[in-house]
Amino acid sequence: MPQVSTSSTPVPPPAVEQTGAAAAGQSPEHRREHGAGASPVREGSRVVIIGGGPGGYEAALVAQQLGAHVHVVERQGMGGSAVLTDVVPSKTLIATAEWLTVTEQAGELGIGADGGPDGDPGTLRADMDTVDRRVVRLAAKQSKDIRTRLEREGVTIISGTGRIDAEISAQGSRRIFVTTTAGEELELETDIVLVATGATPRVLPSAQPDGERILTWAQMYNLTEIPEHLVVVGSGVTGAEFAGAYNALGAPVTLVSSRDRVLPGEDEHAAELIEAVFRRRGMTVLSRSRAAAVRRVDHGVEVELTDGRVVTASHCLVAVGGVPATDGIGLTEAGVEVSDSGHIKVDRVSRTRAFRVYAAGDCTGVLPLASVAAMQGRIAMWHALGDAVSPLDLDTVAANIFTAPEIATIGVTQKQIESGEIDGAITRLPITRNPRAKMLGIKEGFVKLFSDRSTGTVIGGVVVAPRASELIYPITIAVTQRLTVDQLANVFTIYPSLTGSIAEAARTLHRA
User: Where does this protein hold FAD (predicted)?
Assistant: First the structure.
């Protein structure tokens, strides 16, 4: 899931939220207009979740735990696109490619391959058919595991699509019309609705995917051979991840970036480092270039740029973001406010403006991360079913880009500090000075830490390194728990370890 889209403006909660009998006594018209929040709903309430991705299945587990009767309606398979065509398969592919990037320093570390037959030096290579079959198999297994867990907990799963009825009963319930994958029509009566329908790849009119040569990120697992030449249109998170992975797998890659650098929304130093790594590994990066059209030709594709240049290749991945999957499910009729981009507007407890209708995940446009979708879904059920709940806090969300090296971030950005928006201190340490990094042959990366200038509280950080997704965790704890740089620095670290650089960075921010 990869593309970061513009966040929709959260909907403010109603000025006065009535609960219990008062809320139940409101007319359906009043509830639809004012979007009364969830009253503390009694145990045994009925919950219908439309969409079985991270937002949907995590919400289902919470609702079941709180004693609700839960139905999940999912057309694709449990886990949704995140598990079947997005996060799980793409990161599995990247994990395979990573095995090839870690061999870059093999010679320096004294590692070599025995010669093969006929003088073959025994160079590592990837069998694309095997790789993609494994990717698809692991995604299917993860989907099956999620389904098994939900069914074991007592959640009812229906394969199909759901649509919300516009009418609200006098008791505050709604109907959900379900068309099953077998063509059966069902009606579910529910007290609470959660929409977690996710997003689909954005398709350009001038670059229609065919699933063979012109591909979206959901179709990349159809390949049985490494592309002779892959053009990636779009240098955001998805484009950069796939470009880096296929480059490591041995494909010549051309990355078309409409901006000055790849990953334009990320930390500038991190993005510059990744682009330098891409170029060093032989990738062609076309900065300040925009694709005008992608055409299928004999045995390949032509990517026409707006400046008239044409790039000929065997395959093209169009990675230009996603669009929310919100059409045709009755949102507007049910009183749910939808932005011009199609995203569902929600507040920080995942409420929409419609009575007891919540939304979570990429369909809301808040942050297209599986972790955020899952948290939105859990928060929605905690709130709807009257449990203790803290509103979503985006300042504590850690994110990771699975390039090689990875980029992990948390909290405020350097741009916010340098602009004067936040009064913060900045430190940056190259990972190459770390003894463990030297042992592993790591030559690129850094740890960057931000602190509040007056209190010394850790307010953000960036890690660029192998397994940055793991290394960011102690910084995430520091930001979430409002630890000071001194508290972070005074925790014992293993010697030698990459986390030692985090403590060292914290020590440099100490103020006497």
Answer: 91, 162, 362
Annotated binding site, which residues? 91, 162, 234-241, 321, 362
- The SS3 of residue 441 is coil
Q: Which residues are annotated binding-site positions for FAD?
A: 91, 162, 362
> What's this model's pTM, rounded to 2 decimal places?
0.88
* Cβ atoms 223, 132 nearer than 8 A: yes
How many angstroms separate the CA atoms of 101 and 98, rounded?
A: 5
- Dihedral angle, C-alpha 469, 471, 472, 478, nearest 10 °: 150
Digitized pLDDT (tens) for each residue of the chain, 512 residues in all: 333 333 333 444 433 233 333 333 334 443 333 344 444 556 789 999 999 999 999 999 999 999 999 999 999 999 999 999 999 999 999 999 988 888 777 778 888 776 655 555 556 788 888 999 999 999 999 999 999 999 999 999 999 999 999 999 999 999 999 999 999 999 999 999 999 999 999 999 999 999 999 999 999 998 989 999 999 999 999 999 999 999 999 999 999 999 999 999 999 999 999 999 999 999 999 999 999 999 999 989 999 999 999 999 999 999 999 999 999 999 999 999 999 999 999 999 999 999 999 999 999 999 999 999 999 999 999 999 999 999 999 999 999 999 999 999 999 999 999 999 999 999 999 999 999 999 999 999 999 999 999 999 999 999 999 999 999 999 999 999 999 999 999 999 999 999 999 999 999 999 86
Binding-site residue ranges for NAD(+): 234-241, 321
115: which DSSP letter? Answer: P
DSSP string covering 1-44: ----PPPPPPPPPPSS---HHHHHTS-HHHHHHHT-----PPTT
